[in-house]
Description:
Largest sheet: 20 strands, parallel
InterPro entries: Apaf_helical, At4g27190-like_LRR, Leu-rich_rpt, Leu-rich_rpt_typical-subtyp, LRR_dom_sf, NB-ARC, P-loop_NTPase, Plant_NBS-LRR
Protein name: AAA+ ATPase domain-containing protein
Radius of gyration: 36 Å
Number of strands: 46
Shape: globular
Number of helices: 28
Family: Belongs to the disease resistance NB-LRR family.
Strand content: 15-25%
Organism: Fraxinus pennsylvanica
Keywords: ATP-binding, Leucine-rich repeat, Nucleotide-binding, Plant defense, Repeat
Amino acid sequence: MESSLDTDGIMLPQDIENLFFKASGLRGCLLDECPIPNSVRECKIFEEDKIECIMRLGEEFSGVPFQSLETLLLRELPNLIGLFKWEAVVHLPPGTFTCLKELCIERCGKIKKLFPQSHMDKLLEIVAGIFPGFVALLCRNLEENTLSLQRKIRSLESRKDDVHENLQNAACHSGKKRKREVEGWMTDVENIIKDFETLEQGVQQSSRFYHVFKRQKLAEQLERMTEQVTGLFAQGEFPSGHFLEVDESIDRLSLIPQLTGQAFQQNVDDIWTSLMDVNVVSIGIYGMGGVGKTTLARHVHDKLLKESTFSGHVYWVTVSHEFSISKLQSDIAELLNLNITCENDEGRRAAKLFREFQKTERFVLILDDVWKRIDVEKIGIPSKRDGCKLVITSRSEEVCRSMCCKKIIKVNTLSEQEALNLFLKTLDRDEQSVEVEEICKKMVNRCDGLPLALITLAGSMRSVIDIHEWRDALEGLKESCLGRADMEDEVLPILLYSYHRLRDTRLQNCFLYCSLYPEDSYFSRDGLIGHYISEELIERRSSRQAEIDQGHAILNQLVRACLLESDSRMRLKMHDLIREMAIRLTKEKPRYMVKAGLHLKELPEEQEWTEDLDKVSLMRNSIEEISPGTSPKCPSLSTLILSSNPLRSIPDCFFTHMCGLRTLNLNGTDIESLPNSISDLEKLNALLLDGCRKLKSVPSLEKLKVLKHLDLSRTHLEEIPRGMESLTNLKRLSLLNSTFNMIPGTLYRLTHLQQLELPYYFEVPIEEVKALKQLEVLRCRLNSVRDLHDLNRLINSRQSDKQFLSYNIKLSSLEFKDPLPFNFSIGKYLIFGEKSLMEYSLDADGIMLPQDIENLFFIASGLRGCLLDECPIPNSVRECKIYEEDKIQCIMRLEEEFSWVPFQSLESLVLRDLPNLIGLFKWEAVVPLPPGTFSCLKELTIYGCGKIKKLFPQSLVHNFHNLRSLIVMNCEQMEEIIEEADITLPMLKGLLLHNLSQLKSICKGKMIWNNIETICLGGIKNIKELPLYLPFLNRQLSPPPRLRTIKIDERDKEWWESLEWPHHNANNVLQRLVQYRPSESFGFLPGTSHLMSRFHKLSNF
């Protein structure tokens, strides 16, 4: 500032490479002030308030300025008018800026045009000379591609006209209601046709040479529009039709088909009217077992979720025959996202629930399957408060009256025609002979209109084709129902008949085994099949995979026969009447004693332990001790289940007379030591002690020669049980989260092992594992990448019939005794643990992974740079989680054309606590993303990634067209989610954005998300406008068709109300969907699975 420049300006060293100016007093023209040597590769100019331009073009240059410059950064130059200042029409010297790779201009208030129009011809001639082929690259085939898109648009218009004609014809004749997705599709097609007309005009008006940059933008728009048109054309097929046959919103949890008919609809209307009546606070629905009370209540529940009256505050709890106040309180608290587990006093728990309910203006609570009066005030339900609605279902009218229900509705059996319709619908036959129709009618008459009986009987007849078999079935049904007068007694023989139609004893035994679970409880397929295998209820097969397949086949048969129910999470359940029938069956042979989930504090009386007992289930009770001297005489007992009891000890004589015991299940008990009499149970096939955290002592297992399944996971044993090496028939060995060491060489003797699960602290002897030729399931820790490569060779060398069914491998040289923050199920997992990659020197091929791996996790492993460079990901990977990696910068580096399609099968990607991640992609050359990359991605979670600024760079969001869930949290530099205008994410159901302090934009145009169900927002106060596309339905502005809830951080209520909207009425339209939630309800819990479950609870997915 104080220097008086001579005519030559400032003299700089001729070898200088990096030149920075900051508030130095630079003025006028950079080159006048400071002739720049051609050695300079980087130039940054900050906070100079007098500089006007970089180059002044007034006369021909004698040299070539800036010919080596690679980076030019201009920031906060308030008087800069442009890069160039023309004082005469002169050429820019060829070679100027020829090496420039990065140009950044920020907060330069006076610059209007980067490349002024009046000089663009000259400038582009120079650019074309400097970058030969550059213009051709950007403008290639623009007109040809426009014509191609025009043809696609015409085809799309034709399909739209066909659909429109179909809709018009149906409207005139059938009166059916068109699907919302059809209406949305029609609107999308009309919009894209208009957009194309504008684009086509732009192409026609961009033929001049200086339009090259405009043509580049048009080419990008053309590519996006072509993809959209292709997608719309495919969507327009509507394979399921254009119209609603039934209410699409119903997501039934029960197996029972949706009931219809005049009586059913009348009941729905009565309940709905009562719910809308301010004078009716409680509604009772009663009727006999199996008549459809739960189905009716479920229909109302799902309909309420679609309506805005209760803003999504609709809660469902199954009570069941045996219930406790504490259990009911816990179930309700879970629905409310309220933690009361640390509170044991029922009164204080009730007070917390009461306060939580008070936060909600209006809500509906449905209590299903209530058997006796419940004092709702003791539970914590504010039943007398305005806006509270209580609905109960019960078999007893007296229960409804005792709970002071203001409206009581009886569910009657079906009419004769309705019963026949339900039977035929369940039978699922296109047509049948007249004689079969008559037999069907007679069978329906035997069911007396009871839906459960109709469905179960029809399910058992699905596979019957021959007329003789139909006649025989009718005669058998008549005999089974003789002498039955009472309706509920009469339905049981019908259910019993369906059971006998299973014919196969194996199927029947597998069905009866399900009655060992408590009433109304769900059980997993995998767990149940494991028990089938241990109990030898299914045929022995050559591999565990084959046995599992057989188990699934059996369960599928039971579901198809309507004897088991299956929900959307693949869990199974028995209807309480069917379970009652199964328990009646087991009063004889095989003889069961089932007292599961009854809150028993003591064992059943001695006289109940009969000598012919085959199975006993006492799971999920409160039994703390077995009295000394207790020794039931049950020589035929094969299965004893005492799991999930606070049982501390078992007397030594207890097993003395149980010499036939084959399965002993003590999972989740407080047992401290097993009695010595265990050693004499020589027929024992399965010994299950998972979760016995106080267990310190187990007697010798040497005599248990036929033992096939031993589970010592999560116990406190300090040494391996004696006689372990003698268990040569062992097939399943689980030692997860245990603390003892394996004796070297033990595994060599266990040659029949199919499943081996070892604690992570224990370094697996890889040579011993290689010797286990029957091994199909492996869970263990490896010490080094070299061990991983050995295991990889083992996995890849297996023959097709001996492939691994599942493996869960953690790679780490450190002992790891605590559970990982992930929930694992059956699958093929690889976890790179703490520092596992730090000492590993990557070769050119990176880490070699098993080619069938499905789930890949990194946690503080030392991953660095680019994920794909470090670890080429096989296309078998469906889930990838990366936690606490402080050196990783990106997922993919785009440097050259890919010869393959990465991440084409990936469904879930979670990135958490990655402080140096700059984005999913890092460009080092202008190359396209391979088509199909991320095309299957459904869930994307970004948490605590401080450097990432833009999530989806321009034109790449279309690769994520299958995305269903997007979560972005705690990314302090995130400025923009989608760098694109008018975005359609057709499958997106849930969006959660929280604690993004720098976020300025979600996307530049409209967010067209027709499937969005839940939006959760908080801590994004720099967002001034939410460009959510709101369609017009019946000429009224409406929310997106499936949007159910908008959750807003309660601290941001003022921000939400101040948002700007494209339409003046948008806020009013959406406000009825808004719920204000505490900030902590958006919080990140340990482990991403908890985050996802929290999000799903927020969104009621």
